[in-house]
Amino acid sequence: MSGPIVEIRDYTIESEWLDAYRKWAEEIAAPWLKQNLDVIDFWMDCDIDAEVSGSAPNVSPNGQPNVCWIIRWASKEDRDKGFAAFGSSPEWQAIWAQHPNANAYLHMNARFMEAVG
C-alpha cells in the first residue's frame, strides 16, 4: 500500500483513570497532537452504551475502547517514519511525562484504512 491512509487508534483506558486521562488529553495531549500530526480528531467515551451485533459479536474482556483518534498519512511508509519521529520528539516526551498513568492502557489497537469509492 503506497497511497493515502488513515490510522485509527483505539484505546481502552482503565475506568478509574479515565477522568484524569480525559483532562490530560483535552488540555495537553490532543492540542499538541493536532498541531503536529494530521489528526482528523480525538474522541472519548460519552457514556452511551456500544451497540454490538453481527454473527459472532465478541467484546473484549477489557470492554469497548473508550478513546479513539484518527491520523491522516500520505502512505504507510510515511506513517512509520512520522510516528517514530513524533514519539521520540522532546516536546512529546515532555507531554508524555505528564500522563496520569501510562500503565492504564488495558488495550491499544491501531488500524490502517484507505478510502473507497
Describe the protein in words:
The chain contains three helices and four strands. The longest helix has 19 residues, at 18-36. With 117 residues, the protein is of the alpha+beta class. It has helices at residues 18-36, 76-88, 90-96; strands spanning 5-13, 39-44, 67-73, 105-113. Strands 2-3-1-4 form a four-stranded antiparallel beta sheet. The mean pLDDT is 95. It has a single domain (5-45, 62-113), classed as Alpha-Beta Plaits (2-Layer Sandwich), CATH 3.30.70.100. Helices cover 33% and strands 26% of the residues.
What count of domains describes the coordinates? 1
Largest sheet: 4 strands, antiparallel
| Element-by-element helix/strand order | EHEEHHE
Low-confidence stretches: none
Structural class: alpha+beta
List descriptors.
about 120 residues, 4-stranded antiparallel β-sheet, alpha+beta, 4 strands, Alpha-Beta Plaits
Q: Can you describe this structure in just a few lines?
A:
The chain is built from three helices and four strands.
List the helices and strands and how they pair.
Blueprint: E1 5-13, H1 18-36, E2 39-44, E3 67-73, H2 76-88, H3 90-96, E4 105-113
Antiparallel strand pairs: 1-3, 1-4, 2-3
